[in-house]
Amino acid sequence: MTSIGGSLSRRSLLLGAAGAAVAAPVVLRSGALAQSNLKPFRIAWNTGAVCSAPVGLAIEKGIFVKNGLAAETVNFAGSTEQLLEALATGKAEGAVGMALRWFKPLEQGFDVKLVAGTHGGCLRLLGWKPAGVTRLEDLKGKVVAISDLSSPTKSFISLRLADVGIDASKDVDWRVFPGNLLGLAVEKGEAQALAHWDPDTHFYLKDERFVQIATNLEGAYANRTCCILGVPGKLFRDDKAAVRAATTSLLEAAALSAKDPRATAEVYFNAYKPKSGIEDLTAMVSYHTHNHTPVGEALKQEIVLYADELKRVQVLKASTDSQKYADRVFGDVFG
């Protein structure tokens, strides 16, 4: 792999291969794409994020090409601030990520526009039955294992706890462990619950000692986007047609994924070699709400709702005007 800007590792996935094995084919395929006058469009993502499988589908099935783009993915492993800075400075033309992870850094003023929701439903809070933690109310005075202090699931569960009168900043002890070791931390008694996302939580739930306490597939959040597509503000202003083409491609891939989850799971598995098998991938693509992809005013209103809620739990500043915040970070790609 080559590197982009130090914090991004670049991998062309136009042939659905991986790593150094694609070095020679990439040169040939890139040349063919250049001759066809397709616009390059790099999308930053986390290859292991199953909820972004439609991105891979759109590349592998030529949906981006149909819309005039030579798309490739950029595997990102840095902080959200680094990702947004990479977007703002043009090291990628787009990125998909968790809305609740992006909203706080965006408050700092990164020149990034949010143009579409990509799906809902990949955040979970799991309780440990042997510790007697099976409801939100049981978390008062308990330890919750999380992957990092900026975890989007921490923000989401803080909102849910506020609904039952628990102050997440005072009444819950949040402790950080590696994402793939959260379950072990609970099993060893170092925490009594964990807050995380798929695919890890999908597999943790296979242990019957865990119980799902909360998810963003229920209640007011069932029809709320979880992940989003963001683009550089400069690109949005200077080449809205390219942003529209990328958004259209991802919305089409999301619709196909909602209609035929297994087909998407098979493409994602064969091209990107995730740790999850096809059956588990199919299950996750099925219940992630890929039919919920808000754009335009619908997305803007979801941003306002999230901003209002995040101020309640001290994630965003109390002085932040939710409507003005949404006006600044939102981009109407079809308007």
UniProtKB/TrEMBL annotation:
Annotated signal sequence range: 1-23
Domain SsuA/THI5-like, first and last residues per copy: 53-169
SUPFAM superfamilies: Periplasmic binding protein-like II
InterPro entries in the record: SsuA/THI5 (IPR015168), TAT_signal (IPR006311)
Domain of life: Bacteria
Alphabetic keyword roster: Signal
Pfam families: NMT1
Protein name per UniProt: SsuA/THI5-like domain-containing protein
Species assigned in the record: Rhodoplanes roseus
